[in-house]
Amino acid sequence: GELTDQEIRAILSTCEKINNELYILSPFVIGDAQFIYREVSVSREDFAAGMAFVENEDYSSAIEYFGYVSPYDTQHYDIAQRKIEECQVAICNLLLDEAEELAKVGNYYEAYIRAEAVAEAYPDEAYGNKARDRYCSLYVEQTIKEAKTIYEDTGDYAQAAAVLKKCLGAVGENEKLESEIAWYEGRKPVSLA
Hints:
By secondary structure, the chain is mainly alpha-helical. The protein contains eight helices and no strands.
C-alpha cells in the first residue's frame, strides 16, 4: 500500500539516525530523499488546491496550481496534466459562450476579442477559428455601417475613416476595411494652394 506522510517522516528520521551512527549512506541520499518528500508533500497540496479551484470554476487558478504538481508526485502528476487541458477547454468554452452573449446585444468587437483568444490558444481547432472569423465579419460590417452613418450625418470623412482604421487595427488586414478607408480618404478636400 501507500505510505502515509507520518510513516515517510519516520523512515527518513530513522535513516538519518542510523546514518549519523554508521555513516553508511551518502549525505546526498538522505538530502535527496528529504527533498523529494517535501516536494511531494507540497505537490499534493497544490493538486488539492487545483481541484478546489476546479470545483469553484476558477479554471485559471486551477491551471496555475496543477502546473505546480511535481513529476515526483506520481500519484497526481499525470492527472494534473489532464486537468490542465480540461481547464483550458473549459476556459475556451466560457469565452465562446461570452462571445455569443455579447454578439446577441450587438457588441461584436468584444465577441471578436474573446473568440480571437480561443483561436490563438487553439490555432488548430476549427471552432475557435470559425467563431473568430464570424465575429470579425460582424464587427467589420458594424463598423462600416457606423462610418457610413457618421459621414451621412456630419460629412466628416476623417472621423468616418478613423473609425474604420480603429477596426482595422483590431482585426488586421482586411480588404473591405481598406477599401472603405480609401473611399472616405478620397473625399478629402483638395487644397489648390
